[in-house]
Amino acid sequence: MLNYIGYRVLQLIPLLIAISIIVFFIIQLPPGDFLSTYIQQLELSGTKVDAGMILNLERQYGLDQPFIVQYLVWIKNIIVDGDLGRSFQWNKPVSEVLGDRLMLTMVISVISLIFVWIIAIPIGIYSAVKQYSILDYVFTFIGFIGLAVPGFLIALVVLYFVFVNTGVSLSGLFSPEYVDAPWSMAKVMDMLPRLVLPVVIIGMSGTAGLIRVMRGMLLDELSKQYVITARAKGVESTKLLFKYPVRMAINPLISTIGWTLPALISGEAIVSIVMNLPTTGPILLRALMFQDMYLAGSFLLIVSVLTVIGTLISDILLAWLDPRIRFGGVAD
Amino acid sequence: MNTAVPTKAVKKRWFRLGRVPQAVETDEAYEVASQWKLMWWKFKKHKIAMAAGVVLVLFYMSALFCEFLSPHLPLDRYTSYKNAPPQTLHFYDKESGFSLRPFVYDMKMKVNEQTFLRTFQPDTSKKYYIHFFVKGPEYRMWGLFKTDIHLFGTKDMRAPLFLAGTDDLGRDLLSRMIYGGRISLSFGVLGIVLTLILGLLLGGLSGYLGGVTDTIVQRSIDLLICIPTIPLWMALSAALPRDWSALEIYFGMVIIFSIIGWTGLARVVRGKILSLREEDFTMAARLAGASDLRIIRKHLLPSFASYTIVTVTLSIPATILGETALSFLGIGLAPPVVSWGVLLQDSQNLETLAHHPWLLWPAALIIVTVLMFNFLGDGLRDAADPYK
């Protein structure tokens, strides 16, 4: 097991390097570097910028160097000092701007993931064992809608109906009195009921997808020989179902965390913009509008790295659950 | 003799183990039919998919002929009818009784003295009959020739005919939605063409050559999958130069979507090629002296073409949704370009939306389109392997 984990972790290193190169490339994409924008802004606000200061800043970010060197400086700053660069739009280090909001993003994404599983697995099992029943059709239909309608549209429609019928605007995550308050138990309790709607909306498409996967996998398992043999030997239906086919069908669910999680974070970004949640989504949008690329790039980097870690955890979980993977028996 | 053994009441099993094998058609036509014919027969049985196909054809036709179908031009402003609600078609009137030709009433604006909200009331004194093939505002059909014939409209060119309401500049929403369909729907198809090329090429090479090529392609797929798509789309399209024209932005976005979106197709193609490579018919072709290119073209491609079509059908809606999402947020296509996402920008503000709910209509079009593509893809998937 340890061997397996070590091997997986080593595999991640080239992946992380590749991600960071892509992100740095994106940071560099817009014409002009962030420093010239920054200096321009300082001058606009009336601060005298002398040549020495420019030189200092240039050296700090290695802007007088070729791409590769700039990249190395950037990475070195991140790894050694945890310095992600400066957001000129906020005039603060990127890590300060993202901090709290990033945590909320992760909390919402993880809760959504759990929500997706709690809803999708039982429904998937039900739909498979009662294939072509009325409820199966109902779930399939709802699943189709969930897959087809993007979260931000659902959010828009829900916000609209709630607003028209009750006059309450559901956007935001806190009551007004808690918005700027420091974290406390009361603030968390205030947040929880407001968290329900975003979680349901963000989890919608994931749930729909997972129901389909679960249903398909379980149907495949149910028609296999060993199930028929077990039935012939008189194993009770329920016991048989949960002991073998369900266990087999759950495997792919865990291995799909790798793409469920990025999809959830993706969905979160855009739903949170529509619902005006104090997470990273609105920050990203504003950063992109002003081409504040260090902020946007850092966000992309952090989210991708977290996704990679999530995938790693799912792989380890899978190996722990399924000995065939642990011992390298499955080669597909 | 026939001793009736009292059978124990068999508890009904709550699920069925094993499925009933489908009836196999054994008539002659079935045995000699080609692969594509079999697929068509199987697809025809999928009623929902057939219906979805028809709806999509209609949508694309309307996108193709949007100038002719829309009663107004998308950028024409009717300044006295800002934020007007959708009109209803009438067939019956107290004065003139029933008429087969539908008509709409004129609208009068009223300002609520307390809230200063402007509302429109139908003005039954003036009515406008709707005619087919009327002269309306002039346009260039496909940018080629000038004409002023519209499918339907009123005889009076400046008369209000807003079946889906107007926006805050007094532009007809129905016309804008029809024009928006051209951009949004074509975006899905164009986006998929480049994706298809990339996916087939990279997936095919990866599966057929194996070795280092395979490893490189597979690792790049792993890489692209772990970066969350929407933020990546957002970052890339926000990085498009600001001074680009609308057309350049449009194609820039097509390229962005393809560069990120080819992975799914490449995986399908690679998987199929890997398994087909080991099939007996490939070996037979190789023994008979066929070249690599011939084997790929003549034997492998037709075998997984159906799967490619399914994957493509299911990824078009994702592209359409991506364009919509980005334009909605204001970092994709921008006005004066009209796409469904651009139209939805107006409904971002909750209060605007509460007073003018018809601004949400483009969302309905998007949802219908995406659902139809999903139904169609589902039917195609079932038909893709007719030998099952």
From TrEMBL, chain A:
GO terms classed as biological process: transmembrane transport
Gene3D superfamilies registered for this protein in UniProt: MetI-like
GO cellular component, one term: plasma membrane
Annotated compartments: Cell membrane
Record membrane topology: Multi-pass membrane protein
Keyword Transmembrane among record annotations: yes
InterPro entries: BPD_transp_1_N, MetI-like, MetI-like_sf
Key words of the record: Cell membrane, Membrane, Transmembrane, Transmembrane helix, Transport
All copies of domain ABC transmembrane type-1, residue ranges: 102-318
Pfam families linked: BPD_transp_1 (PF00528), BPD_transp_1_N (PF19300)
Transmembrane segments: 12-29, 102-125, 137-163, 195-214, 249-274, 294-321
Record-stated family: Belongs to the binding-protein-dependent transport system permease family.
Protein name, UniProt field: ABC transporter permease
Organism encoding this protein: Paenibacillus montanisoli
